[in-house]
User: What shape does this take?
Amino acid sequence: MHLIRHTLAGLRVLLLLTVLLGVAYPLAVTGLAQVTLDWRASGSLVTEAGAHTTSYDDAVGSALVGQDFAGAEWFHSRPSAAGDGYDPLATAGSNLGPTSPDLLATVEERRAAAATEEGVAPSAVPPDAVTASASGLDPHISPAWAAIQVARVARERGLDEEVVRRLVADHTQGRTFGVLGAPRVDVLGLNLALADLAGPGLED
Amino acid sequence: MSATAAALGQVAALVAALVLTVPLLARHLVHTYSSPRHLRVERALYRACRVDPDADQHWRTYAWSVLGFSLAGIVLLYVLLRTQQWLPLSLGMTAMPAEGAFNTAISFVTNTNWQWYSGEAALGHLAQMTGLTVQNFVSAATGMAVAVALARGFSRASAGGRVGNFWADLVRGVVRVLLPISVVGALLLVLAGVVQNLDAPHAITTLAGDTQHLTGGPVASQEAIKELGTNGGGFYNANSAHPFENPTPLTNLLQVYLILLVPFSLAWAFGSLVGDRRQGRAVVTVMTMLLGVGTALLTWSEMAGPGLVPSAAGGAMEGKEVRFGEAASALFAAVTTGTSTGAVNAMHDSLTAPGGLVTLFMMMLGEVAPGGVGSGLYGMVLLAIITVFLAGLMVGRTPELIGKKIGHREMSLVAAYVLATPALVLVGTAVAIGTGSGRAGIQESGPHGLSEVLYAVTSAANNNGSAFGGLTTGTTFYDVLLGLCMLVGRFLPIVLVLALAGRLAAQRVTPAGAGTLPTHRPLFIVLLTGVALVIVGLTYVPVLALAPIAESLL
Assistant: This one.
């Protein structure tokens, strides 16, 4: 009896709070965000020219979300466990544990493959090149991994290594305020700049 | 700057932000819960709902209100999840299966936010907004209300077991505390790149010519209260590792700050609420020490990267994002398990073995370092009661805490509280590894497989919500087992705490005498920390030895 009476009162309170917290609050924040910060609120979309846009049709991606770059002419992104790779409809890490034999084998495989592709010693391949990220959408790689990819990308695109190295530096960020997070290279931004440099017609 | 110096620097920034703001919010909390005046919007709400916000409720009535409100929440959320396909903004998502909706409804009402499903594949925007976001607010406000009721048990004398009014505590917590901070937090998150729109997934052609579906949503508004209310349920499956939920190291720090803000402020406010500020400071000190040691151990382990796979990879980057690196991932992991949040910015299943052990241990402490909003405070106060009881046994006199005698009735309630969650964890884990359907979900062989199950049940029973994600839990067995663990793990302790609050409020005040143990001095702080550690130690060492400790030695 007590429970029924209090549940009905609870239901009335909850329904009113739902209007406030579940409708008014998110819609008000959406309205404010769309008016004042529409590019960010819409997903930080960028065009092939590297410009900001809020239209999905003009976009080549989100500046925040990583993409798969398998081709030898691109800087590669990290291994991804999101769907078939970099699928925002199935974000995930591998969830494999620190003693997993499967993961151990995969890491060794990736290390050997990366060392062969970049023509470096296996020990020069950094951790982020051989491990899957948490989200499967990691937009960054470490400066160490970008550095060993420079020679290959320059060769594939017929560019001077120094030019490519400078592009990498332009797309490298240190820790925020010197202490937050880790140094990183923005892969999509870097590859957009590369494509731009090569000019139309040099690709495919 | 070296990685270690940067790791220390980010902690220093966090501590500075908290030190500046916790006393301010604490003062606001004290005013919120003790002011006799209602705001106009609150009064309109009480009138429309026909509840009396001025009735001073007996603890039993208060408990019925908590249970009734929560039951209404479970029913409403269940119905919403089962019917979302017919409602607007469903994005073509289908109804959640019955056992899954049962699990999810309990999960969000109990402030756990365990997620067997993945947000981008199972939920439309309406269910996220009107279902999950709403429960993120009200489950947090419920926890805060119970903690405040316990504080009233100490501050009132001969009050006949009356501990305040649940409806007023609930509505004030939402309207005066959680909603204003969430609005500011959400806008700050958008400013840094968190999405906030009502778009359906949209296909784009990537630079390399592939197709990628970008998934928008009302994310920032949910993200802010997800952290502030120590809820932890991600809009997306990847939770705070997803670049749309947590795009930069700065948003990461903001999220960690929001997680810790209310638990620490409420503990700080506790002193003023019971009329002795030193008590609040003592509680905050113990919480800080436990969280500090946990963070240090986790950070050391992730940065050192011991174990088979981390050694082979050259660092513990599996399941971590480059923009956060090891240190910011470790800080987040310690904070999310030290509170009952359960949001993650790195996949806990892939943490180093000692790192995974620390996250388990933080949850096993009973979520008191500093714990969930409200639940952390009442958990710590109950540990303080055990501490004065033990001290009383040593000198052979009736223990007292903040002017209230701890007799055998009070002690029985506290003992039941302390045993409830460990019993759920150990029995639940035993059931899961003792049955075929429980073992079927395990991904890894050996000790790590046991860790996966232990982590899931510990997370559910302590209302944390994070997971060792390798365990397959979207099955009827785990949906029901973990659903029951969350339900009992939330409401049995709450009823015991309210009963205790009622008993304390009925007592007269016992003036402190020469034999009273002062509960704000370093001696007591050390004793309380020791009690917290010894209780976990005695309860969980055997199963920890079989799982993460054994794994650390591999």
